[in-house]
Design goal:
about 250 residues; alpha/beta; two-stranded parallel ribbon; about 15% strand
């Protein structure tokens, strides 16, 4: 085995150990009745972000060459991406998005609902689609997601590791100018990585906060600024938050 392969195997083992630690922490928290919906997403963030950085290959040929040398679960999967997006949105928005069933989800991967009027039982709904793509997302994918959020009278966030075609990009302002739609936001791979970097900063601040309880107010201000930056990245209206593709 070459040195490069040994390092990859060691990295895969490290990520697996982090995952085991997260699962053990979940078990302990549940047994102590100190568990909530967002805890799992927070615990998943460290190992999933490592896994994305090490075992998501934009070049599929690299993954094909490594497949015989690494365990199948070492590679970053679409389900891993959904869970990582869930963690990133929790850290950057302080909102927990619950996962939809693995099948029959209608193209919707994550859902957040917030009560805006208890008297009328009115909720604001945000739907998320996560696309682990290499290459370009076609306009049909964005149109279908727009149809899904319109059917649910919801806002939508489309997040992909790939890029959007020119046709998909030009559809977004049309969708946002429709009188029948809520907001449709879209992040490509470049901006997804920026959002994940902000999430890492949020996670580091939260770790410091647990260790230095006397500085919670200062940490809160830092978190607020980070989350404001993330919100600006996500909620740009009428256009995709990236440079135009060449398609």
């Amino acid at each position: 085995m070459h040195l490069g392969e040994e390092l990859l195997v060691a990295a895969a083992e490290h990520i697996k150990n982090l995952q085991c630690i997260a699962k053990e922490a979940e078990h302990i928290a549940q047994s102590e009745d100190s568990w909530d919906d967002g805890s799992s997403a927070l615990l998943n963030f460290p190992w999933l972000s490592h896994k994305f950085e090490l075992f998501w290959f934009e070049n599929p040929e690299i993954e094909r060459l490594l497949q015989p040398r690494l365990p199948a679960d070492a590679f970053f999967s679409p389900l891993d991406f959904e869970k990582l997006v869930q963690s990133v949105l929790l850290l950057t928005q302080d909102r927990f998005y619950r996962a939809t069933p693995l099948t029959g989800d209608g193209g919707i991967d994550l859902i957040h609902q917030e009560c805006i009027d208890s008297n009328w039982n009115a909720f604001a709904t945000t739907l998320v689609q996560c696309k682990l793509y290499r290459g370009h997302v076609p306009i049909s994918e964005v149109r279908d997601f727009f149809g899904a959020i319109s059917a649910h009278t919801a806002s939508g966030i489309f997040i992909t590791t790939g890029k959007f075609t020119t046709q998909a990009r030009s559809f977004l302002p049309l969708a946002n100018n429709s009188p029948h739609s809520n907001s449709l936001h879209a992040l490509d791979g470049q901006n997804w990585r920026t959002l994940m970097a902000i999430a890492k900063e949020c996670y580091a601040v939260l770790e410091e906060c647990t260790q230095q309880t006397g500085e919670i107010q200062e940490h809160s201000r830092e978190l607020e600024l980070l989350r404001k930056t993330a919100n600006e990245l996500i909620t740009i209206q009428g256009k995709l938050v990236s440079q135009p593709s060449l398609f």
